[in-house]
Amino acid sequence: MSFVDPKKTEGRLPPGQASIKRLPRWGIDHPGVTKENPKIDLKTYTVTVDGEVQKPLKLSWDDVLRLPKTKSTSDFHCVEGWSVLNCEWKGILFREIVSLAKPKDTAKFVTFECADGYTTSLSMPELLGDDVLLAYILDGRPLEVGFGFPLRLVVPSKYGYKSALWVTHIKFTSEKELGYWEKRGYSDVADVWKNDRFTR
After folding, report:
1. Tens digits of per-residue pLDDT, 73-121?
2. How far apart are CA 25 and CA 116, in angstroms?
3. Domain 36-70+89-192 adopts which CATH fold?
4. N or C: which end of the chain has fewer CB within 10 A?
5. Whole-prediction pTM value?
6. Which residues fall within 8 angstroms of residue 169, CB to CB, at 6 or more apart?
7. Strand, coil or helix: what is 101?
């Protein structure tokens, strides 16, 4: 990994982080959880939204592209200690999904399931920020498979394992469901500014 001069990022990085020049591609520049990244055909790709909602959804790729778009520039922080500053994402605010699916009062959390079997979850308040996106463009280019093609979650205030790649299922729940890494000792809070990496 190519690191950035620490003097240029002073005061910008959360505790324990060092800045690198570009985001590594999962399974290509960076070892993935599974042996191969999933192969996704946009002609058959869908995102299912269900659980504790009034209006379950099944969105095709064309449906996704028709939703209101937004751009957001934010910093990406990996639990391993590296960060990439000024990532420019384009996609859908998670609030758009909330608006369409109309969660019930019982919906307190959201679980994200991915094409490779990965899962993670967050609370509703954590997902309603202006910088929380379901993104399909990074720095002006459609996502590569190693960046989560075709659609990934981006939650800048959390370590990267909360920003699920290859999202296929969004499930609103009344109870918290721990995800892949959270079941293996990583913090469910994952707050980058509190250095909250592992379960205490």
Report:
1. 999 999 999 999 999 999 999 999 999 999 999 999 999 999 999 999 9
2. 15
3. Sulfite Oxidase; Chain A, domain 2 (3.90.420)
4. C
5. 0.93
6. 47, 48, 49, 50, 111, 112, 113, 114
7. helix
